[in-house]
Amino acid sequence: MGTLHVRPILDMRRDGAAKMRAIAEEAAALVRRYRGAYSGEHGDGLCRGEWIRWQFGPKIDDAFRAIKQRLDPGNLFNPGKIVDAPKMDDARLFRFPPTYRTIPLTPVLDWSAWDVQNDPVTEATTAPGTGGDSTGGLAKAVEMCNNNGHCRKFDAGTMCPSYRVTRDEQHLTRGRANTLRLALSGQLEGEALDGEAVKAALELCVSCKGCKRDCPTGVDMARMKIEATAAYKRRHGHTLRDRLIAHLPRYARTASALPWLFNLRDRIPALARISERMLGFAAARSLPRWRRDTVWREAPRYGLVDSAQALAAPKAVVLWVDTFNGHFETENARDAVRVLQAAGYAVHVPGLQGDPLCCGRTCTATGMPDRARVGGGAGGRTRAFRRTRRRSSAWSRRACCRCATRRW
Asked: Which of 31, 68, 163, 331 has the lowest CB atom count within 10 Å?
């Protein structure tokens, strides 16, 4: 006795349904030949419901129907399973029926790695961007979610923190992927990626990347949120709150020169209430405290080296200090320098002079990925990368490392 887990590559939007039925019928003949049980370890449901009568015979199947009608005359409990089940290839039940189409869309991020076509026999894929996806690969990335429900588990992993609080399917990685799929296929009552339904589904996503690591199919909801947020903001515009968050690296040095002024919001209750009404920052929550002893002011005391000295040193490392550790938690960056120096490294920190270097994270979070590419010190960031690419790098914040090195 045993169980076979068979996962043939079938595209239900093309000829997958016909192939699925051919496989099922051939498997059923083998089961009957060897007097086996044509069922599944998780029940029969929609996929195998039509084979109940074939397996148990008309008499027992009629008994199943009689019991169902007696105990559930209104047919309320899980209708269409076991008793009077539909055909397994009924297109009305498919998530991707033959009529499934995606809307034309030009994404702001590069999704071409998902826009490929798989060979069902060899599993080889075509070149990126050749899969015929009208959304440039975004829809296929969303379709990586196969609804396995791993994101509903509470016993291990990170995925999904917002769902663990709300217990609402809408705030689950699976629920968000389904909302995106419906939007990209025009099934949200006229709403697309820039609609309110997608915004509501993604609003509580904290972009932790837990789904990319924990999901068996690697669904990257944090990256999809950047795409959806950019689409929404392109249609509805950016708020003052968006701009304050996005441009934080640009005004941070000015604010740190006047910390007493910029910290008044947390000292005067009326200002906190005004900020909540105007900007959406909860009055009950304090904001990061500005301070004068930033990395940029304290750097001369750290014993750092410039880029030329780092390239000439036998053992050097480039420490990329993010805006938050550089201005609000300076001790983190300072201690990182001390640890690296104690290990014998000559430490170089780019961006101490001129425009601030930023990974672009504040821009992508507020729907401004284009500005993250060309603004926020992007030019200086690229030049600094080129000057120091022959040296090891360390980052004071993991999210900034991922954003700067993988996204752009």
From this structure: 331
* Number of compact structural domains in the chain: 4
CB 86 within 8 Å of CB 45 = no
Structure tokens at 19: 């192939």
| Contact assessment for residue 408 and residue 370, using Cβ atoms and an 8 Å cutoff | no
pLDDT tens digits along 232-278: 999 999 999 999 999 998 899 899 999 999 999 999 999 999 999 99
User: Which residues span the domain enclosing 330?
Assistant: 295-407
CA-based nearest residue to 140, from 187, 87, 102, 88: 102
Q: How many CB atoms lie within 10 A of CB 22?
A: 10
- The tokens describing 40, both together, are 């599944």
pTM: 0.82
DSSP symbol at 357: P
Q: Quick check: helix, strand or coil at residue 139?
A: helix
CB 184 within 8 A of CB 135: yes
Reply yes or no: is the peptide bond before residue 160 cis, omega within 30 of 0.
yes
Describe the strand order of the beta sheet including 392-395 as a list of residue ranges: 346-348, 316-320, 392-395
Is residue 119 situated within a structural domain?
no
Query: What would the two tokens of residue 148 be?
Result: 């396995």
Residues 229, 245: one domain? no
Residue 285's SS3 state is: coil
- 130 located within any domain: no
End-to-end alpha carbon distance in the chain: 52
Per-residue pLDDT reduced to its tens digit, 387-401? 555 567 777 777 776
∠ CA 328-332-334, rounded to 5°: 105
Neighbours of 119 (CB within 10 A): 10
Q: Are residues 231 and 269 located together in one domain of the fold? A: no
